[in-house]
Request: fold
Amino acid sequence: MQKSQESPNYGVGILGLIILGITVWFLFHEFSQAPWQFITAMVALIGSLLAVLGTYSSNLAIQIRNEQKPQKTEVYDKLMRIFFDVLLEKKLGLTSKSQEEITCELASITPNLILWASDEVLAEFINFRQTAALYADNPDRNPIMPFAKLMLAMRKDFGHKNNGVDENLVLASFINDIKLID
Reply:
């Protein structure tokens, strides 16, 4: 979605440069009569404007990302708590949640995921949810790897590069016999 909003801005800028170029060409189409001081000043002005617009655009993206971070943190934290409560309920001595309770918790967090999650996190969440829904009918489609991909996408959304961190390493942080999972 962000790309479609930025593309018209680039288009308007390019169109403006074309119009400016055509105007300068019509005014000074004879090379020998061109006022070089004016042209030099215009080139410097256009370069300065492009630099300012580039800096502003970059700063705006950083500001938006920083404003979204608290909401993302809250949503991702709730999602992780739901998953880990289910995964570790026996080890933690928690009462088991019914399938209906888990579904209700995931349904309540989904609107916030749609609003605040990055595109990659949302896609991985949908993949995980669909894989988990099919798991009861097809045990060969274990949802643990899509879950690991979801966790990696959340880490990436927070700015981690995930260098040397893959699905198995993330899963090994809470699964002892990770080598048995394929």
Q: What stands out?
A: Helices lie at 2-27, 36-87, 89-92, 99-116, 119-135, 144-157, 167-172. Confidence is low (pLDDT under 50) at residues 1-6. DSSP finds seven helices and no strands in the chain. The two ends are 35 Å apart (CA to CA).
